[in-house]
Amino acid sequence: MNRLLVVIVSIGLLAAAVVGSNYLRSTLKNSLPVLETLGGDFSLPSTEGKTTTLSDFEGKVVLLNFGFTSCPDVCPTVLTKIRALMETLGEQSSGVQPLFVTIDPDRDSIEKLSSYLPYFHSSIIGLRGDKTQLAKVADLYKVLHQKEYLDSALEYGFLHNDHIYLIDQQGRVRAMYSGSVKLATIIEQIKTLL
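^ thats the sequence. predicted structure below, dont judge the formating
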């Protein structure tokens, strides 16, 4: 009789743990607000060899970043963080798509993006548009970028923000991370959407 009671109690505790876990995941997912003033679908030529749209990744969580390949510090740091995110997620990373939109279409060709981005992670897709296309996408995501002329071989660079945008499976921006946000926080929030 005691064994039967132990089995029943164990099953009850297991069921409560599963229900509690699902409730917690649902609560955390709903605690990430939809940032209504940011985002929207866009379409740009990509390193995939075609025109790629954000909606192509419906059903996946997207990590979106804006930068340029000749950036000396900010962009490599952010792309290294994206690599760490993908590696930490392990098998779950199959549900995540990182995208990198160049803000320097004059120097960043599709070919250059294709050779640069895999250094950080093989899954990162690069996107490039002309200045008009870029302005529209940058406006959607309120991307701050300003060309600055340099006294160096590069001639110019950009002052720009280092944000990674967390976009859910329906294409809605759910969070925006600056460089100071800890990796563990981003991982936890990605997992709530997966």
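The chain is about 40% helix and 20% strand.
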